[in-house]
Amino acid sequence: MDKTLRRWAPLFVLPALICFIIAFLVPMIMGLVLSFFKFSTVTDGVFVGWSNYKRIFTDMDFVTSLWMNVRFTVVTVISINILAFFLALLLTQGVKGTNVYRTIFFMPNLIGGIVLGWIWLLIINGILLPKNATIITDAKYGFWGLVALANWQNIGYMMVIYIAGIQTINRDLIEAAQIDGANSWIRLKSVILPSVMPAITICTFLTLTSGFKIFDQNLALTAGNPARQTEMLALNIYNTFYTRTNFEGVGQAKAVLFTILVAIIALTQLAATRQKEVEA
Amino acid sequence: MKRKYIALTLLITLLVAVSGFSAGTKEEAVKEVYFLNFKPEIASVYETKVAPAFEAETGIKLKVVTAASGTYAATLKSELAKSSPPTIFQTNGPVGLAGSLNYVSDLKNTQFYKILSDKSMALTSGDQVLAIPYAVEGYGLIYNDAIMRAYFALPNKKVSIKSAEEITSFALLKAVVEDMTRNKDRLGIKGVFASTSMAPGNDWRWQTHLVNVPLAYEFRDKGIATGTKTDNFEFKYANEMKQLWDLYLDNSTTARGLLGSKSVDDAMAEFALGQAAIVQNGNWGAAQILGVQGNKVADKDIKFMPIYIGVKGEEHDGLNVGTENYLCINSQVSAEKQALADQFLTWLFSSDTGKAIVKNDLMFITPFNTFKDHELPTDPLAKEVIRWMNKDGVSSMPWAFSVIPSGQWKTDFGADLGQYINGKMSWSDVAKRAVASWKTEYDLTK
Question: Cα Rg for chain A, rounded, in angstroms?
Fold first, then answer.
């Protein structure tokens, strides 16, 4: 049985492998190579060495969008995880109608980013109407609008992961703590939190990377306005590549930098939170 | 044994599927012209009228793909990289052309170039003809003459002139507009000017079209010919532009803070519904006025006046007339396909069937010698553009904005105009940044 499996395994891996190569590996390598070329269409370019990377910093927009992105990610990682965790706690107490609530909280996750962007655009512009303002009147409206949207979209998904984590905690452990006189705060801090550490690791990873990769929500909600103050990295790269003549290579170079940056941040975070995981 | 059969079947299925894909790409050599259309508002005309008529008369298929509004550059970039790229595509002028130089063929010997009346309108490089304009357009202030007549009939009006026709300077325009605002309830309008649309992607009426007026005056003063790239820009008429900009904002249907949510469509709808008396736009907007449900403006009341900003002698200047619509033929497709493209374009702009569609459905004012006077479009705005082009003692303003160094300049300028509206930037900063950014972008794209 094992032998046959091993013999035929490559065949069954093949379709997925082909897809992976076509949709991921080839574009990635092409992207890397193209970042050293001056080009207008991706099949035809001239080698220019590091010049694209140098031109990234001819203006400050990449740095400002990086800073905007960092602020956004910090705020959303914290708010999404805290809110999702407490929702999960709430919905594992055996409240009536738990399943209905879980479904409702999860639903925003099933709507695409562009649609969510439009919906929130309407909501926020409606709220700002009495102030005679719109979401692009002031950068802070755009920032908090994006934060609200990201929370609304991601809390449900993270909640499901936390619920799974909480449900795996051995009931005996909590009961034992209760008998030893631990109040609910101590139980949360010393029993529940350490036990759901794997869920925290994965949720932080997901929210951190999605915070940096956010694109369609950004495009639909503010499109970077006012004056590019709410433009985050992915949108900045897109705008560089598509709206500036002769900047295609620069956009590509930005994309390579972006990939490296996100990889470093995500791997560091994984290593850091993994250390805190315990065996229960 | 059985498992082997299953595996074998799977393998065969896979192989068949893969070979199916490769067979699918090897198309039969159908005679086909692939046209990447720029104007979403007339996409359906190409699909339902032009393509069937062309195929019926010549047996050649026309494949039309239209890029969604605002995404032409992106679509063109990815389509050109494909194995069957577009044969005909559009460019917006010298700056856009610079981005696709490797893909434009020399049109000097085409039939299409021969029918162009004024050969100087084509975009050239050395002795090569690279892009040919296909539609002349004009823009200015579109006004609803019915509302204007109602205003001029008011007993308490404060101006001495008697009709909108007599407005020939910024001073007169301002006097009329401000007096109209005072009487807006009696006139039944929400504001004199339709919303100054500043929603993302909707600020081109200002960062390209309005700024053209100060640009054109400055270049005229300096003797810089239209279409010549220059770094000599100091925004000499910034304050004149500000006068009109403030007039737009202070006499609008919409409060300043809310303009960020308004699109061009909103502004055109306000005009069509009679909520505003004046809107700055071009003859391409005809369909947007006539096509609005509940449209209250009669065809004969849709009129044009030039954009006056308060420059001396502006009574002799007309509408802003020019073109941003050039066609190129892809140099990287086979010679046979290039010839078919020429055949299509010549057919569209010189055969009787083609010309009828151009006049009635596409509504282009064309620069080709194949069109007689009675074959010009008849929608109210196009008629107005033609009237202004031929008006005595008035000459049209050129489209100086074609030499704005990059799209980035427009984006940044539009953003700054928005910051000014929201009180976050002073006008002198807007002007200073526009000059500085012009230099930077000029150097970057040299």
Answer: 23
Helix B72-80 vs helix A233-243: crossing angle, to nearest 10:
70
Q: Does A31 lie in the same domain as A163?
A: no
A219 within some domain:
yes
Do the chains contact at A131 and B257, CB–CB below 8 Å? yes
Q: Please list every residue in chain A whose beta carbon sits closer than 8 Å to the beta carbon of residue B96.
A: 245
Q: With an 8 Å Cβ cutoff, are A14 and B411 in contact? A: no
Q: Find all residues with CB under 8 Å of B15, minimum gap 6, and list them.
A: none
Is B418's CB within 8 Å of A242's CB?
no
* Shortest distance, CA A24 to any CA of chain B (angstroms): 18
In a domain? residue A280: no
Contact B14 A228 (CB under 8 A): no
- Inside any domain, residue A192: yes
Considering Cα of B351, then B352, then B358, then B361, what sign does the dihedral take?
negative
Angle between helices B170-182 and B238-250 (to 10 degrees): 20
Could you tell me the CATH number of the domain that includes residue A174?
A: 1.10.3720.10
As a whole number of angstroms, the distance between CA A17 and CA A115 comes to 32
Taken in order B250, B254, B260, B265, the sign of the CA dihedral is negative
Same domain, A213 and A97: yes
Is the pLDDT reported for residue B18 higher than 70?
A: no
What would the pLDDT profile of B417-430 be if each residue is shown by its tens digit? 999 999 999 999 99
* Residues in chain A within 8 Å Cβ distance of B102: 40-41, 44
- Token pair recorded at residue B326: 């050039």
Tokens of B347: 């057919």
Contact B417, B196 (CB under 8 A): no
Binding-site residues on chain A for chain B (CB distance < 8 A): 4, 8, 11-12, 14-15, 40-44, 58-59, 125, 129, 131-138, 222-228, 242-246, 248
The beta-carbon neighbor of A245 closest among B258, B406, B411 is: B406
Q: Is residue A279 part of a domain?
A: no
Contacts of A40 in chain B (CB under 8 A): 77, 80, 99-100, 102
**B-chain residue closest to A1, CA distance:** B3
Chain A residue nearest residue B11, CA to CA:
A11
Q: Are residues A138 and A227 in the same domain?
A: yes
Residue A105 pLDDT greater than 80, yes or no: yes
CA distances from B103 to A6, A48, B338 (A): 51, 21, 12
Task: Write the pLDDT tens digit of every residue in B143-166.
Answer: 999 999 999 999 999 999 999 999
pLDDT tens digits along B349-392: 999 999 999 988 888 888 899 988 888 888 889 999 989 988 88
> What structural domains does chain B harbor?
28-136+323-371 (3.40.190.10), 138-321+394-444 (3.40.190.10)
User: DSSP secondary-structure letter at B400?
Assistant: G
Domain count, chain A: 2
Domain holding A29, by residue range, is: 2-51
Interface ipTM above 0.85:
no
From B217's Cα to the closest Cα of chain A, the distance in A is 27
